[in-house]
From TrEMBL:
GO terms for biological process: fatty acid elongation. Belongs to the short-chain dehydrogenases/reductases (SDR) family. The keyword Cell division does not apply. Residues 5-179 form the Ketoreductase domain. GO terms for molecular function: oxidoreductase activity, acting on the CH-OH group of donors, NAD or NADP as acceptor. It comes from the Bacteria. InterPro entries: KR_dom, NAD(P)-bd_dom_sf, SDR_fam. It comes from Metallococcus carri. This is SDR family oxidoreductase. Keywords: Oxidoreductase.
C-alpha cells in the first residue's frame, strides 16, 4: 500500500474516532468518516451513517468510495456506545442495542469493506474494542460481550482473508478522555486512574498512533492481534 491511502473511520466526528481521522488526514491520506449527523473534522469527507442499519452502511461506503476515488483500503470500525447496568436489571433492549451497535455494526462495515479489499488484494481492518473485552467490567455485560466479540471477528477475518493481503487487528483502549468517560462519576474516574499503572487517563491521540501503526505497511505481518493501549491496566490478559 502506498500513500495516500483511502481510509474510512466510523464514528469519526468526536472522541477517539475524530483523533484517528485527524491523524490520517495529517499523514496525507484520503479520509472519509461517518457519524450519525454527518458532521466531521476538517480535511475529511463526512458522511451520515447509522451502523445499526445495513442499508445505511452500504450507502455510506458507496458515497465514500465515490468521494475517495476507489475502494476503501483502511477501515477503522470505531463507532460504539455503552449502556451500563447491573446484570439482573439489564433489559433485553439494552443488551441488544449495544451488541447491534458495537459488534453487528462493525460486522456490517467489515462485510462491505471486504469486497473492495479482496479486489485490491490488500486492506487493513482495525476494530476498536476495549480492555473490558478481556478483563470484564461490572455493569458492562452487554458492552464487554460486544467488545470481546470483535476479537473473534478479527481472528476469523484473518483466517478467511489473510492470504489476500488483508490484515484484521483489534485495539483495546483503557480509559481515554472522551465524552464516553467524562460522564463517569468522579469517584469512579479516580478509581480507574488508581488501577492504571500509568496513573492517568490517555488522550485519544494515543489510540490513534496505535491504529496508524496497524494500518501501515510496517504491520503487514501482524494480523489477528490484540493491541492494548491501556497504560498497563489489563496486563496479563
Ligand atoms: P464517544 O462517545 O466520544 O464517540 C462515539 C462515536 O460512535 C461517535 O462518533 C458516535 O457518533 C458513534 N456512534 C455511536 N453509535 C453509532 C451508530 N449507531 N451509528 C454510527 N455511529 C455511531 O466515544 P469514544 O470516542 O470514547 O469511543 C470510541 C470507541 O472507542 C467506541 O467503540 C468505544 O467503545 C471505544 N472505547 C472507548 C474508551 C474510552 O475510554 N473512551 C475505552 C475503550 C474503548 P454520533 O456522534 O453520531 O453519536
Amino acid at each position: 500500500m502506498t500513500q495516500p491511502r483511502r481510509v474510512l473511520i466510523t464514528g469519526g466526528n468526536r472522541g477517539i474516532g475524530r483523533a484517528i481521522a485527524e491523524s490520517f488526514v495529517a499523514a496525507g491520506d484520503s479520509v472519509a468518516i461517518t457519524s450519525r449527523d454527518g458532521s466531521g473534522p476538517e480535511g475529511a469527507t463526512a458522511i451520515a451513517c447509522d451502523v445499526t442499519d445495513s442499508a445505511s452502511v452500504d450507502a455510506a461506503f458507496d458515497e465514500a468510495e465515490q468521494a475517495l476515488g476507489g475502494p476503501v483500503e483502511v477501515l477503522v470500525a470505531n463507532a460504539g456506545i455503552t449502556d451500563d447496568g447491573l446484570l439482573m436489571r439489564m433489559s433485553d433492549e439494552s443488551f441488544a442495542k449495544v451488541i447491534d451497535t458495537n459488534l453487528a455494526g462493525a460486522f456490517r462495515c467489515v462485510r462491505r469493506a471486504s469486497k473492495g479489499m479482496i479486489r485490491l488484494r490488500h486492506g487493513r481492518i482495525v476494530l476498536i474494542s476495549s480492555i473490558v473485552a478481556v478483563t470484564g467490567g461490572p455493569g458492562q455485560v452487554n458492552y464487554a460481550a460486544s467488545k470481546a466479540g470483535l476479537i473473534g471477528m478479527a481472528r476469523s477475518i484473518t483466517r478467511e482473508l489473510g492470504g489476500r493481503g488483508i490484515t484484521a487487528n483489534v485495539v483495546t483502549p483503557g480509559y481515554i478522555d472522551t465524552d464516553m468517560t467524562r460522564g463517569l462519576p468522579e469517584a469512579q474516574r479516580e478509581a480507574f486512574v488508581a488501577a492504571t499503572p500509568a496513573g492517568r487517563f490517555a488522550q485519544p491521540e494515543e489510540v490513534a498512533a496505535a491504529v496508524r501503526f496497524l494500518a501501515s505497511d510496517d504491520a503487514a505481518y501482524i494480523s489477528g492481534a490484540v493491541l492494548p493501549v491501556d497504560g498497563g491496566l489489563g496486563m496479563g490478559h
